[in-house]
Design goal:
Blueprint lengths: L10 H13 L6 H14 L5 H4 L16 E4 L8 E3 L4 E3 L4 H7 L10 E3 L11 E5 L2
């Protein structure tokens, strides 16, 4: 797991890092942010503000559809997500995600597929992909 030995998490510092990343047009061009907004609005997903800021009660992303890639700034991977580190995962266990992305990012064998391999844009952050 990322950041297991980090100890106490400086939540305020990580929140500011995430805000910086989202406000930086060189990291997230306005076209992408507009597309993301349209995608979420058109999906019928409703999220309380607490979910957007990563303070859900159960640290759970199972309610989201598969394939959303999210920058995460926590020492633990939420339920319903996998770290985007190129890992190979079972096609049956993560069938909803597999049906969406297939072997776009490679596969180890006929029963597995790889998730994307992306580094977080800032120290203390990493990407996760929702499994549905």
């Amino acid at each position: 797991m990322p950041f297991e030995d980090e100890g106490i998490v400086d939540v305020e510092r990580k929140r500011k890092n995430v805000e910086y990343v989202l406000d930086d047009p060189t990291l997230f061009p306005p076209e992408y942010l507009n597309w993301q907004k349209r995608f979420i609005e058109g999906s019928g997903i409703t999220l309380p503000a607490s979910s957007i800021f990563g303070i859900t009660r159960a640290n759970d992303l199972l309610a989201l559809p598969p394939g959303l890639m999210i920058i995460y700034a926590s020492g633990t991977v939420p339920r319903g997500a996998l770290v985007c580190n190129g890992q190979s995962v079972d096609r049956v266990r993560y069938d909803r995600l597999f049906n969406l992305i297939g072997i776009s990012f490679g596969s180890a064998d006929a029963t597995h597929f790889n998730v994307p391999n992306l580094a977080g844009p800032l120290a203390g952050t990493f990407y996760v992909i929702t499994t549905g």
